[in-house]
Amino acid sequence: MNARFFHAAMLVVAYAVPARAAEINATPLTLDRPAMVNNIEVVCTGIGREVREDPRWNAYPLRVEIAGNQGQLLGDVRVTLKRGEEALLSVICGGPWLLSKLPQGAYRVTAEIQGRVVNVNANVPATGQGRVIVRFPELGGAISPEYTPPTTP
After folding, report:
1. pLDDT top residue among 87 and 22
2. In what order do the strands lie in the sheet with 35-37?
3. Reading across the β-sheet that carries 116-124, which strands appear in turn?
4. Where are the domains of the chain?
């Protein structure tokens, strides 16, 4: 199998849109304000270094980050979280981070931005914070010289 064909086939798999995700109504979130969605506490945040370093965000067991082609943080994204086949929530987040208070376990994250969809697996640890970066390699512009990528906890 040639490398180009394999890469193209993998992109098709990575960008396939699950039919069930489209059926869930997405709840718009207000930046930096925790909200309850389907009995799960979530917060949309991550705009600005000071906000990203807010110690309140450490209490959320799952951090989903949305990034562009050079690691730029992206916002205005629809994020759906599933456990197994069960869709737990779907939200619209204006910032690059979606934090969730979920129990330990394996989850599926679907992120949609500008008509593009990416699916990734996420794990919530028994303690601490699980982190998953959802990458959109075809999105994002130039990085400003002042940009500092977030650190891993």
Report:
1. 87
2. 35-37, 40-45, 97-100, 62-67, 130-135
3. 27-28, 86-93, 77-83, 105-113, 116-124
4. 3-135
Nearest to 130 by CA among 140, 120, 139: 120
- 3-class SS string, the chain: CCHHHHHHHHHHHHCCCCHHHHHCCCEECCECCCEEECCEEEEEECCCHHHHCCHHHHHCCEEEEEECCCCCECCCEEEEEEECCEEEEEEEECCCEEEECCCCEEEEEEEEECCEEEEEEEEECCCCCEEEEEECCCCCCCCCCCCCCCCCC
Cα gap 54→30, rounded to integer Å: 16
Pairing of strands 86-93, 27-28: parallel
pLDDT of residue 147: 54
pLDDT tens across 15-29, in order?
Answer: 333 334 445 789 999
For the question of whether the overall pTM of this predicted structure is more than 0.70, the answer is yes
CATH class of 3-135: mainly beta
Regarding beta strands 40-45 and 35-37, do their DSSP bridges make them parallel or antiparallel, or are they unpaired?
Answer: antiparallel
